[in-house]
């Protein structure tokens, strides 16, 4: 989907905030100041002050000379950032991705949001009127890229909405400052008489890079949408966490169990509301002596079943050392996932669709005995016996290809083929006798050979000629010869036992 | 009078069975059955919802036992779609299970290190009533441990197959049956090559049934009874005396 961004510019962010708390200052010229090199310098001036010719970076004493009744307030450092963060959080009602653009703006990623307000124009209008209603003097623009939206919001004169793929046209008449460049580069551009983006946008890149550095080029490309620009959205702090302080320090296993159960119930209640389930859960116990004890569980399938989660934790409660007692219990769910109803349908374990019960059983086994103990195999398209299957990634994964049944395969396979001594007629006959672990077997019946070539694109080596052998007791073996007789004495191996 | 007596005996047998905690799952049988072996079991059906014990003495017999168990599992898995195979040193080669009517991707293997862990996992799995069959590979199983497994399946009605590989002693356990499977030379009818898997199936113990020995072949996706050909000299060749 095509990306759309909104850049919002707060023209008098900090002064507007003061007006909001002190409405009587609305039409009174006032400034915010901070000390710099032993003198008071203006960091922000409201509209009324600007109309009197008072601007940012002027010294307070000079301004007092221009306008003697000028009101002066201290600027709190970090105030702008705090305000922008709050405003960005407020903007989450319009889009989930809102970012702060210091020192005086916000950037919203509004891809696919505007239609909910009936189009981009009413959407933008809604944002602007709401913010203006709060008393903030804002300008905003909507465009395909962050760079263009920023430029239009600050310097645009025509329309705040840039049509998709129209960045180039709207950027041409704007001054170079619209590209978010360093003052040094702006000064150099100004010296050369390049007052509009249009006057240098078509210059050879090499020349631009040599004279102004890579920054100019990348800013230009970001604005045009040729280069990706990352956005750092402020995430609302919304961890899945529950706390339980205790009146008296708790020292018994029963006490811990009760606390755990209560916390799980609270957590699962919230998860149920949001239709989510836990994949990973951490239970922390804050001890009186400042030590923190924690146990952790994971699940194969997102779950919000209190009983199941409690069972998983129960196996590990023994690891908590309460010492003098535990004051506070917390439970965190760092990984939560949507509980999908369709998940069971993909791979129906049983006729009743009771996949959850099996998943919970496997969770318990994995929780106690380790994640790597549980394996399920799917066919893999290889002839080499050891490679003919792969481990399934999840319970829901289905085989893509069928299992081969055209050639006999032993039910028991040795982890490593073991060498045997054979008596064998040349060249391609099965052995007559073979000696495996000191026991001599006489071959009565045999099938083969089935030649399996080494897959040269994976590994170099000799091919194997497999024989099914039945000895005098009726036991069936899977033997193979490695390579041919051309290269000296080929070795013989036993690889498996047939049923 | 004769008929009434027969009825009474049957009635009493059934009562005795229920007292001995053999609760047959009504209407549930093996998909195809075991042929003649079925007659050895109470009510002529392989006991489901119980724990069965298989003993193998060496690697070769273990393969035969695995094959026989796989055949059973294939029939048991007609209902549920997932089974657990819990073992400490797994030798099963999953692609081969396809031969015995099991889709190998429907088996979840649990590979553990210690005997204790295997027992714990088997017990937990047997308590999960959604599964229909759980296979466990162990070497030692004490009476108490087997009793725990039996109690678990009495609740959940899961069938458990315990494969004991080279146990130190063949001690008494609380399983309903004890089997020993060994390979037999396959039948080829004079043709070259190796024939279908053929086993000597020994049912050493069966609760409320009759133990016996059979020769079974796995062919065409099912167990097939082979009647051993008794060697007899035809009548016209015997020398008439006297």
Task: Report on this structure.
Chain A is of the alpha+beta class and 499 residues long. Chain A folds into 3 domains: 1-238, Reverse transcriptase/Diguanylate cyclase domain (Alpha-Beta Plaits, 2-Layer Sandwich); 241-346, 2-Layer Sandwich (Dna Ligase, domain 1), CATH 3.30.1490; 412-497, no CATH class. Helix content of chain A is 28%, strand content 30%. Chain A has helices at 13-21, 47-51, 60-66, 79-90, 120-133, 146-155, 167-171, 183-191, 205-212, 214-224, 253-274, 306-314, 342-346, 355-369; strands at residues 5-10, 30-36, 39-45, 71-74, 97-101, 105-109, 138-143, 241-250, 276-287, 292-303, 326-338, 374-379, 389-391, 412-423, 433-436, 439-452, 464-471, 476-482, 491-497. In chain A, helix 9 crosses helix 10 and helix 11 runs antiparallel to helix 12 (306-314). In chain A, 34% of the residues are buried. In chain B, strands 3-2-4-5-1-6-7-8-9 form a 9-stranded mixed sheet, with helices on both faces. Chain B has 4 helices and 9 strands; from the N terminus they run H-E-H-E-E-H-E-H-E-E-E-E-E. Chain B has helices spanning 2-19, 59-76, 115-126, 143-156, and strands spanning 51-56, 83-87, 107-111, 133-138, 159-165, 177-184, 198-206, 212-219, 222-225. In chain B, helix 4 links the parallel strand 4 and strand 5 (159-165). Chain B has one domain: Rossmann fold (3-Layer(aba) Sandwich). Chain B is of the alpha/beta class and 242 residues long.
């Amino acid at each position: 989907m095509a990306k759309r961004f909104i850049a919002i510019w707060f023209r008098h962010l900090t002064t507007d905030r003061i007006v909001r708390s002190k409405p009587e200052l609305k039409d009174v010229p006032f400034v915010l100041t901070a000390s710099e090199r032993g003198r008071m310098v203006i960091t922000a001036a409201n509209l009324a002050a600007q109309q009197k010719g008072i601007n940012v970076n002027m010294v307070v004493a000079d301004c007092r000379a221009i306008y003697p009744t000028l009101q002066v307030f201290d600027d709190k450092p970090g105030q702008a950032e705090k305000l922008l963060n709050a405003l960005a959080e407020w903007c989450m009602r319009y889009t989930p991705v809102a970012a702060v653009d210091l020192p005086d703006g916000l950037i919203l990623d509004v891809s696919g949001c505007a239609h909910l307000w009936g189009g981009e124009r009413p959407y933008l209008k809604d944002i602007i009127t709401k913010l203006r209603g709060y008393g903030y003097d804002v300008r905003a623009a909507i465009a395909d890229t962050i760079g263009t939206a920023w430029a239009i919001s600050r310097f645009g004169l025509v329309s705040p909405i840039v049509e998709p793929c129209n960045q180039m046209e709207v950027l041409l008449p704007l001054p170079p400052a619209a590209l978010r460049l360093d003052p040094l580069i702006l000064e150099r551009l100004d010296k050369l008489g390049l007052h509009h983006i249009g006057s240098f946008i078509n210059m050879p890149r090499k020349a631009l890079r040599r004279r102004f550095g890579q920054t100019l080029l990348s800013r230009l490309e970001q604005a045009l949408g040729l280069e990706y620009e990352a956005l750092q959205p402020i995430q609302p702090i919304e961890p899945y966490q529950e706390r339980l302080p205790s009146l008296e320090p708790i020292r018994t296993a029963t006490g811990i169990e009760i606390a755990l159960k209560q916390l799980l119930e609270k957590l699962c209640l919230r998860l149920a509301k949001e239709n989510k389930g836990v994949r990973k859960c951490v239970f922390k116990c804050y001890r009186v002596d400042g030590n923190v004890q924690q146990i952790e569980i994971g699940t194969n399938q997102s779950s919000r079943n209190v009983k199941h989660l409690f069972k998983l934790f129960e196996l590990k409660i023994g690891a908590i050392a309460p010492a003098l007692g535990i004051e506070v219990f917390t439970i965190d769910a760092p990984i939560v996932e949507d509980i999908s109803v369709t998940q069971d349908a993909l791979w129906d374990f049983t006729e009743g669709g009771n996949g959850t019960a099996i998943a919970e059983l496997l969770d318990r086994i994995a929780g106690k005995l380790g994640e790597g103990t549980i394996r399920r195999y799917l066919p893999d398209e290889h002839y080499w016996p050891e490679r003919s299957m792969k481990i399934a990634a999840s319970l829901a994964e289905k085989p893509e290809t069928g299992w081969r049944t055209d050639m006999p395969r032993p039910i028991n396979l040795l982890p490593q083929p073991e060498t045997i001594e054979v008596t064998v007629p040349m060249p391609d006959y099965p052995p007559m006798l073979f000696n495996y672990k000191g026991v001599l077997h006489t071959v009565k019946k045999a099938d083969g050979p089935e030649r399996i070539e080494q897959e040269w694109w994976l590994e170099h080596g000799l091919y194997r000629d497999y024989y099914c052998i039945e000895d005098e007791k009726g036991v069936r073996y899977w033997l193979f010869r490695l390579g041919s007789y051309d290269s000296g004495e080929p070795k013989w191996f036993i690889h498996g036992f047939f049923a | 009078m004769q008929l009434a007596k027969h009825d009474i005996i049957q009635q009493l047998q059934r009562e005795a069975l229920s007292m001995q905690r053999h609760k047959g799952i009504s209407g549930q049988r093996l998909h195809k059955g075991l042929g003649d072996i079925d007659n050895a079991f109470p009510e002529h059906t392989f006991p489901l919802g119980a724990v069965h014990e298989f003993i193998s003495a060496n690697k070769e017999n273990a393969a035969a036992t695995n094959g026989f168990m796989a055949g059973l599992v294939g029939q048991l898995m007609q209902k549920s779609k997932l089974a657990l195979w819990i073992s400490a040193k797994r030798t099963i080669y999953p692609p081969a299970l396809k031969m015995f009517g099991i889709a190998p991707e429907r088996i979840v293997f649990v590979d553990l290190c210690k005997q204790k862990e295997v027992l714990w996992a088997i017990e937990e799995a047997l308590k999960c009533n959604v599964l229909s069959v759980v296979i466990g590979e162990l070497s030692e199983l004490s009476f108490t441990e087997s009793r725990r497994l039996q109690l678990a399946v009495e609740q959940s009605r899961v069938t458990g197959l315990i494969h004991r590989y080279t146990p130190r002693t063949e001690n008494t356990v609380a399983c309903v049956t004890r089997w020993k499977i060994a390979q037999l030379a396959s039948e080829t009818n004079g043709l070259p090559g190796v024939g279908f898997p053929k086993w000597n199936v020994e049912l050493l113990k069966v609760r409320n049934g009759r133990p016996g020995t059979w020769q079974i072949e796995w062919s065409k996706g099912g167990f097939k009874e082979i009647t051993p050909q008794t060697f007899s000299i035809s009548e016209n060749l015997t020398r008439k005396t006297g």
